[in-house]
Amino acid sequence: MEEKFISIKDAMKKGTGLVSVRGWVFRERGSNKMKFVVLRDSTNIIQCVLKKEDFEKQWDEIDSLKIESSVEIVGEIKKDERAPTGFEISVKKFRLIHLAEDYPINKDVNEELLGDRRHLWLRSRKMTASMKIRSTVLFALHECMHNLGYTEIQAPSMSGAASEGGSEVFEVGYFGKKAYMTQSWQFYAENFINAVENAYAIAPSFRAEKSKTPWHVTEFWHFEVETAWADLAKDMEIAEECIVHVIKKVLKENLTELEILEADIEKLKKVKAPFKRISYKEAIETLIKKGHKIKQGDDFKSAEERSLAKYYDDAFVFVTNYPMHLLKFYHGENPKDPTTGTNFNLLAPGIGEMVDGSQREPDLDKIVERLKKAEIDLGASDWYLDSRRYGSVPHSGFGLGIERFAAWICGFDTIKDSIPFPRTPTRFNP
Ligand code: 4AD
Ligand code: MG
């Protein structure tokens, strides 16, 4: 066919007259006189009707159509309230591009098999909508950083030493030596900012955590920001601005996808800066009041983090100034109370921790002392400390988990639905 094809979305916008569309068979049913094909492209689905009398020569082919076969169609579009998306195309010309084999996904397929067939499952309306929203999230984060004058700067994914440290690091062979998959861009960033001042990156981070929760994957996409001269308050403002910008963009670009996912659009519209800010101390008091078994000085369990966001208007909430013993060697000290740090976690309802940030400790001696006390050897990452040797400046940064943010927007109950190919302790294929 020589036709000029348009998307199903645009065909529906046109609403009447002749249209040429192409895509995949989403559903089909028929009799010996008629065939109803619901056609799917990346933008939507639409019902198409083929009458045997119009396609005598092609009828065998049409009759044998299977789900996910690819086809091209020219026909008359009109409104039809009985059709799944309110429009129907009465087909005038039909071309089979590829007759699909029996599709190995149907409603009886279990979770495990869906995982094996993830590359096919991505064709589902849910996953297509999710991937489009994810794409907007990534684009909007770049846009926000660009608007704020940040420099995007990449760090390597493999390195001679672990960044955050701990046991959660993947080891890989590196020409007879050991390398480690990056957990965070932060050590590099704290050096970059002495050049570009305001830096960010969006890249995968790797965590060899065995946790099988809906909120953990072993490879996640990490939005990380580092800002010279910024204090904790500024750091939180930047995180907040990015989040608000992204949500506005998704509401503008992805209404169709949000509707497909039956996402809570009102929840998204309600997001406005500034988000609520509470101290760690207040957070613990609130949890105790609500009957949680926790005391001052304890770390939060992720269920407690999810509850906290619920208790505070079921909205994003910043929890600041955790006790120093819960923090890492690079966290700064709160000048108002040095037993607490200049850090924050942003909690999202239903998700828990979504962003982790802090004003960093600028003083080399303090850091060296803490490393000694905690018996941490930075090893090949000792270069990190050069950021404190040659013109150390106050600075802050944060990391946001893209999948946690996207899953919150979509209202998913697992972040695995917000990444095309989730990596978990038991799944690294496809
Ligand atoms: O809290 P994390 O470990 O903080 C850091 O890595 C800092 N170095 C970031 C920085 O200051 N530049 O990770 C940051 C965020 C978390 O709040 C969470 O949203 C996400 O990354 N995250 C994960 N997302 C999915 N699966 C996992 N296993 C994750 N681990 C962390
Ligand atoms: Mg954290």
Q: Can you offer a commentary on this structure?
A:
The structure is a single chain. The protein has 430 residues and is of the alpha+beta class. The chain has 13 helices and 16 strands. The strands form three sheets. An eight-stranded mixed beta sheet has the order 6-10-11-16-15-14-13-12, sandwiched between helices. Strand 14 and strand 15 form a beta hairpin. It is elongated. The two termini are 35 Å apart. The model has no long low-confidence stretch (mean pLDDT 96). The structure holds 4-amino-1,4-dioxobutan-2-aminium adenosine-5'-monophosphate and magnesium ion. Magnesium ion (MG) is lined by residues 353, 356.
Structural class category: alpha+beta
Number of distinct helices: 13
Strand order of the largest sheet: 6-10-11-16-15-14-13-12
Shape: elongated
The helicity comes to: 25-40%
Order of H and E elements: HEEEHEEHHHEEEEHEEHHHEHHEEEHEH
Between the first and last Cα atoms, what is the distance in angstroms? 35 Å
Largest sheet composition: 8 strands, mixed
Uncertain stretches of 5 or more adjacent residues: none
Average pLDDT level: 96
Number of strands: 16
Q: Identify every distinct bound molecule in the structure, by name, code or SMILES.
A: 4-amino-1,4-dioxobutan-2-aminium adenosine-5'-monophosphate, magnesium ion
